[in-house]
Each structure stands twice: as structure tokens, then as C-alpha cells.
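Design a sequence for this backbone.
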């Protein structure tokens, strides 16, 4: 990334504040949603992740970034329910028809519940988080913005490549931490001017692979928590572990190629 001018750095902040304004509108829109809550929450969380990357770019990941992170976590249930069903469908396991039918029925029931709008109080709490993040962003000294952006991106870039190098250890937490590092990197790039943006070294594809692996890990936790343990469905767990291993090997190869 080339160094930003003062005007380019100001534009980064403007785009961040505009993004926060859009996020507020989307949260308000949830209260008028007509059965599209999960999709709208997905859009809110996607924008929130991008904004958090922008906050990290300006060194605000520990205050403004965390305010925005809270929103995604609070509203996560509707989208998580849909994601679990989508992951189950992609897995395509039906070795034991009775177990598969029981799991699918519960997952589908969860998606029906996910169509419900959040309470007004919940939306108000989320809006307050966005306002706090906005104040942190707007309070930054304009004279320091260019230096902040340059230093912030160097840290994000270093962290992303460091995490990629650790993937060959194939520890569960390494895949999770690498995914987080890539999301922050990609989010930061969203707010850089085109002429200053670094070349994307395949991070989009790797992030997608790690996301699929994480979806299986999340589904595993749900299955275990609902009694579908290895004892009662050994074939299912074998299929999940086989798929996770394939995704992990693919991710390791992609990370090594970087």
C-alpha cells in the first residue's frame, strides 16, 4: 500500500462515518422487516465486519470496533439458524434416515423462529453502539489520519500473513484466528482508495474456505449441544470430520501459496 495523502485519509474517515449511518438505517429497517430478518441481519453483520476492518485501519479496533462487534453478536441468532441449515444441506449426510430427519426438522424449526423481528429495545441498544463508535471515529485528529491508516494497515497485513504461515499446524484455533485476521484485512481494504489498495493475494478465496470450515465447526457444536453426539451418530461425525479435513488441507495449500 502506498502512503495516503491527508485528503485520502480524510476520505477513509468519511466513508467510515457514512457506513455507520447506513448501518443505523439497516438496524431501523429490521423493525419493519416483512419476513426477511435473516437476510437483513446477514447484511448488517457483513457491513459491520467491513466497518470493523475500517476501524482497525485507523487504530480503533479496541473501542469503536468492539462497539460494532457487539451488534453482530447480539443479532446473530437469525442468520446463524439459516447458516446451520445451509451447512447441513451442503454436507448432504443421510446415512441414518431417522437421525437426519430429526436434525433437519430442528434446523428448519430454527429458521422459522429466525424470521421474527428483534424487540425495539434491542434495536435501540444496537443504535447506541453505533453512535458510540461514530463519536470515536469523528474524534480522531485529522492531522494524524494518514499516519494512523498506514500504521494500521501494516499491522493488519503483518498479522494476516503471520496467521497464514501458522495454518500448517492444523490446530482448530489457528483456522479460526486466521479467518478473523483475513476478515479484518479485507474490511480495511474496503475503505482504502483504489489507487492505494494493495494487491489481493488470494485472501478472498482463502477467507471463503475458512468460512466453510468454521460453519462445519459451528454445526458440530450445535449437534453436540442437541444430543446428536458421536455415540448416537458416529457416521455423521465421521462425515463432518472428513469434510473439515478436506477444507483444512485446501486452506493450508492456499495459505502456503501466498
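Sequence:
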Amino acid at each position: 500500500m502506498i502512503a495516503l495523502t491527508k485528503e485520502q485519509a480524510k476520505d477513509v474517515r468519511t466513508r467510515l462515518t457514512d457506513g455507520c449511518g447506513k448501518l443505523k438505517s439497516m438496524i431501523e429497517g429490521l423493525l419493519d422487516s416483512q419476513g426477511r430478518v435473516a437476510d437483513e441481519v446477514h447484511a448488517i453483520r457483513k457491513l459491520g465486519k467491513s466497518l470493523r476492518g475500517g476501524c482497525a485501519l485507523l487504530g480503533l479496533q479496541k473501542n469503536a470496533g468492539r462497539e460494532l462487534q457487539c451488534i453482530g453478536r447480539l443479532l446473530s441468532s437469525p442468520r446463524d439458524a439459516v447458516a446451520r441449515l445451509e451447512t447441513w444441506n451442503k454436507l448432504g449426510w443421510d446415512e441414518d434416515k431417522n437421525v437426519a430427519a430429526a436434525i433437519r426438522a430442528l434446523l428448519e424449526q430454527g429458521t422459522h423462529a429466525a424470521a421474527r423481528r428483534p424487540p425495539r429495545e434491542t434495536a435501540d441498544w444496537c443504535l447506541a453502539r453505533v453512535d458510540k463508535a461514530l463519536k470515536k471515529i469523528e474524534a480522531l485528529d485529522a492531522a494524524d489520519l494518514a499516519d494512523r491508516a498506514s500504521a494500521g494497515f501494516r499491522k493488519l497485513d503483518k498479522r494476516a500473513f503471520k496467521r497464514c504461515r501458522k495454518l500448517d499446524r492444523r490446530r482448530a484455533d489457528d483456522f479460526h484466528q486466521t479467518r478473523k485476521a483475513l476478515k479484518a484485512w479485507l474490511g480495511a481494504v474496503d475503505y482504502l482508495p483504489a489507487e492505494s489498495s494493495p494487491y489481493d493475494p488470494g485472501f478472498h478465496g482463502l477467507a471463503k474456505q475458512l468460512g466453510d470450515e468454521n460453519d462445519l465447526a459451528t454445526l458440530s457444536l450445535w449437534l453436540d449441544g442437541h444430543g446428536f453426539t458421536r455415540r448416537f451418530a458416529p457416521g455423521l461425525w465421521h462425515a463432518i470430520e472428513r469434510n473439515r479435513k478436506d477444507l483444512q488441507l485446501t486452506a493450508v495449500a492456499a495459505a502456503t501459496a501466498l
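The mean pLDDT is 92.
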